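Help! Submission page says 'invalid entity' but I think these are all valid:
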Amino acid sequence: MEQTYKNAGVDIRAGEETVKKIKGFAKSTFNENVLSDLGLFGGFFELKKDNYSEPVLVSSVDGVGTKLKVAIAMELHSTIGQDLVNHCVNDIAVCGAKPLFFLDYLAFGKLNPETASSIVEGFSIACKQNGCALIGGETAEMPGVYQKDDYDLSGTIVGVVEKKEVIDGKKIAKGDVLIGFQSNGLHTNGYSLARKVLENFSFEQKFDELELSLGNELLRVHKSYLNLISHLKKDVEIHGLSHITGGGIIGNTKRIIPEGLSLKINWDAWKVPNLFKLIQKTGNISDEEMREVFNIGIGLIAVVSKSEIDKVIETAKTLGETAILLGEVI
Amino acid sequence: MEQTYKNAGVDIRAGEETVKKIKGFAKSTFNENVLSDLGLFGGFFELKKDNYSEPVLVSSVDGVGTKLKVAIAMELHSTIGQDLVNHCVNDIAVCGAKPLFFLDYLAFGKLNPETASSIVEGFSIACKQNGCALIGGETAEMPGVYQKDDYDLSGTIVGVVEKKEVIDGKKIAKGDVLIGFQSNGLHTNGYSLARKVLENFSFEQKFDELELSLGNELLRVHKSYLNLISHLKKDVEIHGLSHITGGGIIGNTKRIIPEGLSLKINWDAWKVPNLFKLIQKTGNISDEEMREVFNIGIGLIAVVSKSEIDKVIETAKTLGETAILLGEVI
């Protein structure tokens, strides 16, 4: 029998159709610094050097973990791309950087142009919200690696910060305080545990203590803290910022704490949101495990000296955010 | 029963062990522009602006397709990372850019620190060979998305080129010639078809017409053309460069050909390597399909005016490469 790429599971035409569908989404994110059209081998982004004195490029790569299994099960692919962009944006924003551009990798068992298009639309929405350009991507069809309707996605963001404005925790000192800001759900961490614990419920199920259906609660879009961080940088002397992802409050904040210092957290300083409580109760999960796996309600932590507390509270308030004093550096 | 992340299939300790193992590999690629240690939220790369007049960042993201199924089947994980880096490097080198830094994404069904470490060692080897720093990565454990021993990987590279030295095909004119340079195997494309066609052979099988066993032929590391391209840029006026990946010689070279122009290829200008012939014969694959799916022996194409041919041949020769005149722009 004559063999073709298509009967080996790779449909070049579906690939071309996908590229056509997603080009518009990517282009909608372009700004005057993007020099290339899509379809070339690389994406071109001009760094106007006169705008910087000592530019440092800050980059980060991430995925969304098994949150995508929830998206796939619910056939809702429009927000998972936003999750990924916001996750990446937060990771460089906590370093003090402003995002410049984003590139995505999408791999399917069987490439579905509609699904791919929904996901990429999500990338473009979040890219525009965060002022960054979607300048490249790779869409792969990989039969045998992914189940037919399964896919995975990863994204890389590149941003820029002035060397003297890098936030890396080096200024953190004993006595500094930790101020937390609320997450709006699981963000993109802990889904393998959450899904396991909740496997006997339907995603359509409603709970008295949750606003949306279980599935929609789980799919709430990972919040971008870029705007909040931009304001905090202007108003406050920030010693460190921590994005609470896998590893939880301690695991992530420890990444920026200088050697010899440690963290004291007041775990009662905020109300753990009901979704986390539901997961904990259903799975009979220990407090310790919950704190390591999930953000349990805190998505961002700023480390500042005590004298800055009021300014942080004030800035947060003007943005509709609540600043929660949740611990100190010891 | 008390649930934990670990019994949900995510082993945070295996993650930590992996990070420990791979830190050294990443660090071995660092240069004076890398300002961060691993473990922060982002990777920091200083762009010394005085070294550039109008810097354009060129980036590309890629995977290795189902070549990794061969690596997994053969339990040889040390070269797949090199494939990925070299693929990415070529994609920006054909735009005229020099690589600065690379970030990887690795996702496993069940995280195996040994395997992850082998893969990342591969990244670091190729990063050093291409003079770029491995400044970030994400390693994810995603039970239920990937089979236990399966994984996927993607990588993003960022490089830089002076605006006036960007190679984007705009100078290509009617009468220009296409000069091809040899690939050293399938590189990273067409593996789903190759695997399907060859599924009745063992990867250990030897063929008279192949130097190595079938599996080792399939795993030959995607060649980096960075050095060749750097020399060509110095010696020759290049109108366009094309990296031959999925889509083949025509599909990829068309990406840089200005509208209204077309390609005429002399398909007899070079000898198609035996591995491709074996695949074609075994699978009864049409010439047309072979040319669209595989590089069939040509990994890089330079488009130059006729007057530059001798210089290209000469430069290639000094590097031990053969320049093959394989077509023209019509």
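Support: the input was valid. A stray whitespace character was the problem, and the output above is from the cleaned input. The mean pLDDT of chain A is 95.
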